[in-house]
Amino acid sequence: MPMPRPIDSTLHGATDYSVGTLLMTAFPKLAGVEGTPAAKQIRAAGAIHASYSTLTDYPLGVVKVIPYKAHLAIDALGALALAATPFVTGQWKKGRSQWLPHVGLCLFELSSLLMSDPTQKGDFHGDVDAVRRANMEDPGRKIHSGPRAVQPAAA
Amino acid sequence: MRATVWSGRNTVQVENVPDPKILEERDAIVRISSTAICGSDLHLYDGYVPTMKRGDILGHEFMGEVVEVGRRVDNLKVGDRVVVPFPIACGDCWMCKHELWSLCENSNPNAGLAEKMFGHPTCGIFGYSHLTGGYAGGQAEYARVPFADVGPIKIEDDLDDEKVLFLSDIFPTGYMGAEFCDISGGESIAVFGAGPVGQFAIASAVLLGAEQVIAIDQYGYRLEMARNRAGATDVIDFSQDADIVEQLKVLTGGRGPDAVIDAVGLEAAHGHGALHAADRMKQASRSETDRGHALRDAILACRPGGIVSIIGVYGGLMDKFPTGALMNKGLTIRTGQCHVHRYLKPLYEHVREGRIDPSFVVTHRLGLDMAPDAYETFKHKQDECVKVVLKP
């Protein structure tokens, strides 16, 4: 049985903007890292995330130049990069608060990605093949090749 | 009997439930031969209409054979083939006497709920939440039809079910939307939404004599049906260019359409990212009930002095409603749940005379047990789905 992916592209977009905004604003203070390099890194991550969200080809994108699947790939790379940052800079040695938020955010992002439907079909959980097999109509014929179904008033 | 029941957000199931019984002297029991999934059923499916309960039987578009009648139903007899209008109307109150059937004052036993939301009660509706009476719907093998001496129309010829079934809702609803536009010949009409109701609004505008009918949607196959089958003269695919207002100006010599029909309703999609994001989040958090992209654009696009006809279903409250454009352009708004009873006979006559074949919208005809997959396919616009008819 395939893993359920209940997050459609619209909900994913809503999460992008709301989490991005949270990271840029209150999150560093809530995580107790205000005034440290970690705060700057987290704010930068939020800003970058919200920025490429506006450029993504999904319902909440503004200028739709980045394909949705590419957006998901950037999400994954960004999450891993954020988690790696404290270990690359060496700030992890200054205490747990300097690396735990990064790793936590990375895990949140990856779990959100696991639940996101990359096909943009959203939370579709029907069996369209069964519908196709059982259908007593031919949608293609009805849409594309049938005659006009209405007579204009003047006819 | 088997029936399609609401089992929570995004879930319907086909279950065994008790058969309906005659409860009042004006009831009839109908064995259903065909029933359809309506676009407005998706508002229930998506969880945006309050007062749904698990186990509620869905469906307000159905027809079939009368198998039992109450003592005071003297216009129908067992064996009659009937189409049942979705509004339940008593025929006796002030509203019914004035042909405002969907505003019947007597058919909604939960009128108090509707009064709280809307200021006045609205009629009962089959299978459409407890706000509209909690009546069992018609996506089932049988249905109880209250006030059966008033509502159902007898089908006295051998027309296929699919040609007359939509007299129950979407054909009269689309027709009323076009009629609101005061079409006398030569007008330009824009129709937001090329779903089933939109298709009938387009076809009705053509039938009434509009010269230019512009269909607006984001799904190419629906726009193709609008052009090939329903008679649209122009189409706008807003997935390609989200500026619908500007495109309508271009198509109408800069003035805007004479009338605009909103056949979308409270779950409008749109290409304007930031506005859509704000609406989607507010609706998801239940801080507004209605996403209004289509209606906002309809008001902005309509020519000054024109008519905005609203037949898409709205449920409660909408943000960013352009009252300034509405007032300063002198627009007329006409709207309402369709007074189906008013249109049954004239539209049946159009079908019988061959002026319209309503079966053109049916892309899926399935057994009742396929209802859960059919809802998903319809909701997610899979397999070029426009309209699903279920056969119990």
Can you count the beta strands of chain B? Answer: 17
Beta percentage of chain A is: under 5%
Q: In one word, what is the shape of chain A?
A: elongated
Biggest sheet statistics of chain B: 7 strands, mixed
- Write the element-wise H/E pattern of chain A from the N-terminal end onward: HHHHHHH
The average pLDDT of chain B is 94
Q: What keyword list fits this structure?
A:
heterodimer; A: 155 residues; mainly alpha; 0% strand; elongated; B: 392 residues; alpha/beta; Quinone Oxidoreductase, Chain A, domain 1; Rossmann fold; 2 domains; seven-stranded mixed sheet; six-stranded parallel sheet; 13 helices; 17 strands; 29% helix; globular
Structure write-up:
The complex is a heterodimer of chains A (155) and B (392). Chain A is built from seven helices and no strands. By secondary structure, chain A is mainly alpha-helical. Chain A has one domain (9-119). Chain A starts with 8 loop residues before the first helix and ends in a 10-residue tail after the last helix. Chain B has two domains: 2-169 and 338-391, Medium-chain alcohol dehydrogenases, catalytic domain (Quinone Oxidoreductase, Chain A, domain 1); 171-335, Rossmann fold (3-Layer(aba) Sandwich). Chain B has helices at residues 41-45, 94-97, 111-118, 161-164, 170-179, 196-208, 220-230, 244-251, 273-284, 293-301, 323-328, 340-352, 371-379; strands spanning 2-6, 12-16, 28-37, 61-69, 81-84, 87-88, 124-125, 142-145, 153-154, 188-192, 212-217, 234-237, 259-262, 307-310, 332-335, 364-367, 388-391. In chain B, strands 3, 4, 5, 8, 9, 16 and 17 form a seven-stranded mixed β-sheet that branches. In chain B, strand 16, helix 13 (371-379) and strand 17 form a beta-alpha-beta unit. Chain B is globular and about 60 Å long. The chains are: A mainly alpha (155), B alpha/beta (392). At the A-B interface, helix 1, helix 6 and helix 7 of A face helix 6, helix 7, helix 9, strand 16 and helix 13 of B.
